[in-house]
Amino acid sequence: MPKRSKVKNGKDAQRCSSDNEQLPPKQSRSEDSNTPSPLCFHSPASLFESLIQPMKMEQFFGEYWEKKPLHLQRSDPITASYYQSLFQLSDLRSLCSQGLEYYTDINVVRCINGKKKVLNKEGQVKNSVLSKNLVENKATIQFHQPQRFKDELWRIQEKLECFFGALVGSNIYITPQESQGLPVHYDDVEVFILQLEGEKHWLLYNPTVQLATEYSIESEERIGSPSHEILLKAGDLLYFPRGTIHQAKTPAGVDHSTHLTLSTYQKMSWGDLLLDIFPSLLCDSSRTEVSLREGIPRQLLLGSSEGLDNIRRLATELTSLADKMETGQQEVRSTHMKRDFISNRLPPYSREELTPSGKIPALEDVVHLRFKEHMVITVEPSHDRTDEATELVIFVLHSLKNQRESHMMGESCDAEVEQDISRGLQFPLSHLQALRQLQQAEQLAVAQLQLPTPEDKLNLTLALWSESLLVVV
Asked: Is residue 170 within 8 Å of residue 262, measured between CB atoms?
């Protein structure tokens, strides 16, 4: 028999009330459920732990994260009812009236003889056509990024992005009985599946590529026997690491299955971080190390670069860089990954426009940062085009003005961020320590900021207040 990895949920599982959190004043048309949430929204960590309860976070990351699948069985009707309120088949009717488009918002697919068949039409999606595909063609409806429309999913994914420090996307899959939507494949993301309606039968297989960095379909000949055979019921959660080969089918006798896939940690490996930091690392080191400014051997580019002497020289330079990083002599800066995350993530969960709050800060005031988890600080070359030497400056970037409607839709905001300073602030390098003070302190007197003049202190706090990132205590 295939292995099973699961934890059963008892009635005494701890819950956390989220009554103290401010909710959006207006819910979207698709959001009309008053089902109580079994999730705790007090902090990103408490949300994640309530999502995987009764398992503790330390056990999950010690035993399962990036290692093996986990099946959490929930017999609690509150959890099952809450999951169903996140999305159900009946939600499609109202959503179709909002102008959904095939390919962009909806895919209609079915796995036939191990291959994916796409049954999309052109243009806008009609609910009657989707219903016909579901019943007559036994097709799966794949709904892309439902957090753009469902407030409670926005609420969950925004907190999870704070918890992981990475983008969190989602898809809804609605599959009729005795049907399969996608062929056997593996993904390049960590996957959390919440069973919302009905049941789904899953087969998981050991990876052929450990912690895969790209999506791929696998052949039946390569995958062998399943490592896990799991029946997901409403309220259950299934996790598996990137690279885990999988397929799923709605069993006979189940009208339809609806599940939500939450995915994260795409391109968040140590290799991705090294690719991000190396350009600035080498650029900075070349300013101080003559050896990195010496020319490479003549005609090296015309022949082989794998000569033993050349390999040794490269290894020596890399070892020297590593030693300076380890001893703190060389600063390490991540820029692109920070910008990509902060410019493409969800804005804070609120349906009201975020504006400067409270009084304007003065020198005698005590202040604290708002939305710390939606802000990053980068040190990078100035974007101003001048004939002078490149100057390093600080950028304070935030996601307060991001558009929920475009979240995870494949349109990178990098170019827009470069041109739109309204998404962030620029300061001279001398302000770095003061910004770190504000980041690390729960609250801080303006006068205590490590800046040379009272004017500098006031200008820094006023700039942050104007971006809704700071309030007076």
From this structure: yes
The whole-number pLDDT of residue 433 equals 97
Q: Closest Cα partner for 461 from 2, 64, 437?
A: 437
Count of Cβ atoms closer than 10 Å to residue 24 Cβ: 14
Token pair belonging to 33? 């459920």
Residues whose CB falls within 8 Å of the CB of residue 446, separated by 6 or more in sequence, listed in order: 361, 362, 363, 364, 365, 366, 367, 457, 458, 461
What gap in Å lies between CA 149 and CA 171, rounded to an integer? 12
Listed residue (160, 231, 159) closest to 195, CA to CA = 231
Q: Which residues of 337-373 are buried (b: 16+ CB within 10 A; e: fewer)?
A: bbbbbbbbbbbbbeeeebebeeeebeeebebebbbeb
**CA distances for 147 relative to 23, 128, 243, 294, 307, angstroms:** 16, 23, 25, 53, 53
The amino acid occupying position 239 is Y
Pairing of strands 70-74, 6-9: parallel
The backbone torsions φ and ψ at residue 298, rounded to the nearest 5 degrees and listed phi first, read: -60, 140
**What is the C-alpha to C-alpha distance for residues 170 and 152, in angstroms, rounded to an integer?**
13
DSSP string, 361-392: P-TT-EEEES-GGGEEEEEEE-----SSPP-E
Taking the chain (473 residues) in consecutive chunks of 10 residues, what is each chunk's mean pLDDT?
A: 44 46 41 78 97 97 98 94 96 92 97 95 95 95 97 98 98 98 97 98 97 93 94 98 98 97 98 94 91 91 78 93 92 92 95 87 97 94 68 93 93 49 79 97 97 97 96 96
What is the bridge-based pairing of β-strands 115-118 and 216-217? unpaired
3-state secondary structure of 216: strand
Helix (H, G, I), strand (E, B) or coil at 196: strand
β-pair partners for 109: 118, 140
pLDDT value at residue 418: 45
pLDDT score of 16 = 64
